Amino acid sequence: MKQIEDISEFRSSPELVDKLYKHGILKVYKADSVILNENAHVRSIPIVIKGVMRVIRTEEDGREILLYYIKAGESCIMSFLGGLHNETSKVKVEIEDDAEILFLPVDKVSLFMKEHPEWLNYIFRSYHKRFEELLDTVNAIAFKKMDERLLALIQKKAELVKGNTIQITHEQLANELGTARAVVSRLLKQLEESGIVRLGRNKITLM
């Protein structure tokens, strides 16, 4: 679990930490819960205390694409932007792994930007990190083959759970990659035949 006071920008400001705990609302979620839908109004900004969130964009034809993950101590810059500009969300945010999320009301987000430079630094760092991850996603879609993207996604999920085995269906992988289930199943079989992964019922193990 990542405590608010452990976040690098907040260590020098006990006053800011106290305000975050005072005004924030802590909620607990199970994996696959949806905490923000596309086109929903952003009323609060999530800070992950424990677990992992995934941020997804849905195309007009219903296909989804995974944009990035948000881990303990991090927040969603898309929520920041939507909340500050009173716009609806452009993304969907789901829980990847059982999580505890601290929600900070949008009005406090704006106020803390004026009162605490540490909070502003935290937002800038979040923006920089998310921008780099979005560039990686764009590069992967534009220049990498689907089998490379699939393996990279499996490796990323294994890294998040700190193990070699992930619990996931072919359909879920297909949704996050924005492709068809049949394509994922075929590529997974090829990876298994190459000795890179071992497939089980709703689980995949990296060899």
UniProtKB/TrEMBL annotation:
<dbReference type="InterPro" id="IPR000595">
    <property type="entry name" value="cNMP-bd_dom"/>
</dbReference>
<dbReference type="InterPro" id="IPR012318">
    <property type="entry name" value="HTH_CRP"/>
</dbReference>
<protein>
    <submittedName>
        <fullName>Crp/Fnr family transcriptional regulator</fullName>
    </submittedName>
</protein>
<feature type="domain" description="HTH crp-type">
    <location>
        <begin position="144"/>
        <end position="207"/>
    </location>
</feature>
<dbReference type="Pfam" id="PF13545">
    <property type="entry name" value="HTH_Crp_2"/>
</dbReference>
<dbReference type="GO" id="GO:0003700">
    <property type="term" value="F:DNA-binding transcription factor activity"/>
</dbReference>
<dbReference type="InterPro" id="IPR014710">
    <property type="entry name" value="RmlC-like_jellyroll"/>
</dbReference>
<keyword id="KW-0805">Transcription regulation</keyword>
<dbReference type="Pfam" id="PF00027">
    <property type="entry name" value="cNMP_binding"/>
</dbReference>
<dbReference type="InterPro" id="IPR050397">
    <property type="entry name" value="Env_Response_Regulators"/>
</dbReference>
<keyword id="KW-0238">DNA-binding</keyword>
<dbReference type="GO" id="GO:0003677">
    <property type="term" value="F:DNA binding"/>
</dbReference>
<dbReference type="GO" id="GO:0005829">
    <property type="term" value="C:cytosol"/>
</dbReference>
<keyword id="KW-0804">Transcription</keyword>
<dbReference type="InterPro" id="IPR018490">
    <property type="entry name" value="cNMP-bd_dom_sf"/>
</dbReference>
<dbReference type="InterPro" id="IPR036388">
    <property type="entry name" value="WH-like_DNA-bd_sf"/>
</dbReference>
<dbReference type="InterPro" id="IPR036390">
    <property type="entry name" value="WH_DNA-bd_sf"/>
</dbReference>
